Amino acid sequence: MRYGYWLPVFGGWLRNVEHENMEASWSYVSRLARRSEQIGFDLTLIAELNLNDIKGVHAPSLDAWSTGAALAAVTERLELMIAVRPTFHLPALLAKQAANIDHISRGRLSLNVVSSWWADEARQYGVAFEQHDDRYARTAEWLEVLDGVWSRETFSYHGKYYRVEETVLEPKPFARPRPTLYAGGESEAAKELIARRCDAYLMHGDPPARVREKIRDLSARRDRLGLPPMKFGVAGYVIVRENEADARDELRRITDVAQNAAGYQNYQQWLAGTQLEQRVSLEDYSVSNRGLRSGLVGTPGQVAEQIAEFEAAGVELLLLQFSPQFEEMEHFAQTVIHPRPARRAVQAATAAAGDAGLHKY
Fold first, then answer.
1. pLDDT class for 360, splitting at 50, 70, 90?
2. Best CA proximity match to 297, nearest among 352, 349, 343, 252
3. Are the C-beta atoms of residues 218 and 230 closer than 8 Å to each other?
């Protein structure tokens, strides 16, 4: 299992908790990234939104691309997965920018391709906002141009959305054959596009059994296309405590839903702008990306057992959120990624007893 985390470019992940003791600042995220690769984390996802959909539109949020470029220069082994939305970037220009960051990082750049969902953000920043399937049609062309200019000496393309003429892009990306392309989505249009054009599938939080079904679906689509196997990642929100009672107390605190929270209206727009396979609860509103459904809440032994179930289902990457991020990531690294010998016996005993009472969360 590879351990990744969402870089806190919004200053937190909890829509019902105003202050999470972390901030949307270069000082905080650069310190976090440098420390994370020392304690066992492999990857950070840098979300791209110009407005803050967690804490409210007037709260600060960091720019994904300049932050990613800066992190490339101050980290050594951390994979930098930068989110990119085709409606906000011309593909050949983005390909040039990404190739440069990939060289700065010596091949550690990857992209999370996201079809936009936030109509108000697009309007504020002067970007076209199209219907769901139209956005995916645009993304399909965008990916063709991106891959074309990365892989060919010169590249031309005439499509409905994009047109380039004999484009030369040098230097090519450092990574070979190209930086990894991740994407997520639950609509038919999204899954078919991802199976055809991307290298890895990212899923919202769900229990391992549900995730296994999704992996089988995307793997079957990939096989039908005669393409190599995909990689799979899943989102999760982590609460690790020494006993169940403390974990439950923290869970209750962060899911004390207040519908007038600053991010609630933005969350409603996300629901309207996406196509999900399942209904979303107010508990899902409390933590982004359905993170609590992954069941990573409990003692170190319970959380380690749940991670083992994800691995057995075919998951290779966990994209985790924590609050407060710095302190909780340290605790997770010490108790789950690299548990001290004294803890291993406790974790083994917990797993043997089948004590998975919190997994339903």
1. very low
2. 252
3. yes
